[in-house]
């Protein structure tokens, strides 16, 4: 049975940080259209710090590594994204537990716990034009694929596809949470920056958590 | 971008160092970016803590001192401070009588202060009560949004609740006064230009020479409506009418009228606007009991203004008039 190791999780964080760095200006431009033009800079600062906090330090367990990422994001990102991404990783880490490697079904359950943490912290629902619109379909697609008996790599790929589709679906939405909501109808026609960074997070997971240390 | 800075990355810490150098009765915890009174803790006094993104100066650090805030934490420009910072400010301000968090209603600020309050209560047993300001009438459909934004009322609330805390009132009493201020205050703003975030380097949005943005907040987020630029007397009406209609304010009400500059509008123009606003208010039968005119809650270099009306009673007026000694507001001492 394949397992997700702490090395895989570290590769996930490393690739997420790299994707955020590469998309820093694009995230900021999206945020400038409907928010306050800081999402790229904030996520870049946070993911850089989170990677530095876990890279090279031998983590005691899968859960400890991911929780450390969450605590670092809470302390470094600020805005709404700090508590939301921080809560996501803290809940995922808690659910992953104290083993060095975790079965795919347990990783999927941990991602579900992370999503629920984000929903609780942000009080956002599907369709509010937030990161939930990328994360929620991704977690559901991953669970469905595993339930259908498909391989872990395919479940992760399905999650990435669902996150990208969810991200794209935010464009016509009218925002009901966060600063974009103050625009009312004028928020429609713009892709949500939070859903965009969340899709990067899932894309990074798809390339790393299936093992093989890809994406370093 | 033309800005009087060294490096965009150093704007916030260097401004905090400047506040500390300029105001000997304040201190700065540089690691946590907290401006605080030098004489903390003050036994028996409820602590007042606020904070938020930078770029709104003098809010909040310029309101730290006697009769107002005990500590204020500064986030990155337009970005909420993180829970560690709010926690550090809360610990500094807590003398054992509890701490009031004054939070502007933005998704990030509310979540970060909430996490900090949970941490403070679990780490030190501090009692923390949060009051969230949400006075911006430009946000109409608050059921379908993150709720109204906290803007000008925040300044008035920090002054009035600060005076109540200075009198030795309990945490619950100070919180009650604070909530009363938020409930009786309404604001509306207009931008004539965008603002430029130092780390971004270009204006957040584009406004044509003949346009203005009505219903803006304080973060360069676009407002509700783009309309043709108008004379001050018309702008005054566009700002005051939705404010008056919202509470609603009625004939004979006593009000504090706060005409705020958003950072790039000179005081000369603010007084032109104040004159028009005052005329509309007295024409509507309101008694303008107090006024405040100047840039107190800004949006970097944005040209524009906001009008805040606060309905006051004898108690709120006497708390407003009570002594205050901060970098930005100073009277009676």
TrEMBL record, chain A:
GO cellular component, one term: cytosol
Residue intervals passing through the bilayer: none
Alphabetical list of InterPro entries matching this protein: DhaK_L_YcgS (IPR012737), DhaL_dom (IPR004007), DhaL_dom_sf (IPR036117), Dihydroxyacetone_Kinase (IPR050861)
Record has Transferase as a keyword: yes
Keyword vocabulary terms for this entry: Kinase, Transferase
Pfam families, per database record: Dak2
GO biological process, one term: glycerol catabolic process
Keyword NAD: no
Coiled coil, from the record: none
Molecular function GO labels: glycerone kinase activity
Location of the DhaL domain: 7-207
NCBIfam families per the UniProt record, alphabetical: dha_L_ycgS
Entry protein name: Dihydroxyacetone kinase DhaL subunit
The species this protein was found in: Geodermatophilus tzadiensis
Classification of source organism: Bacteria, Bacillati, Actinomycetota, Actinomycetes, Geodermatophilales
UniProtKB/TrEMBL annotation, chain B:
GO cellular component: cytosol
Any Gene Ontology biological process: glycerol catabolic process
Domain of life: Bacteria
EC number of the protein: 2.7.1.121
Molecular function terms from GO: glycerone kinase activity; phosphoenolpyruvate-glycerone phosphotransferase activity
Record's keyword terms, sorted: Glycerol metabolism, Kinase, Transferase
Pfam families referenced in this protein's UniProt entry, alphabetically: Dak1
Pathway info: Polyol metabolism; glycerol degradation
Catalytic activity: dihydroxyacetone + phosphoenolpyruvate = dihydroxyacetone phosphate + pyruvate
Keyword Protein biosynthesis belongs to the record: no
Residue intervals of the DhaK domain: 7-331
Record's subunit section: Homodimer. The dihydroxyacetone kinase complex is composed of a homodimer of DhaM, a homodimer of DhaK and the subunit DhaL.
Listed name of the protein: phosphoenolpyruvate--glycerone phosphotransferase
Species assigned in the record: Geodermatophilus tzadiensis
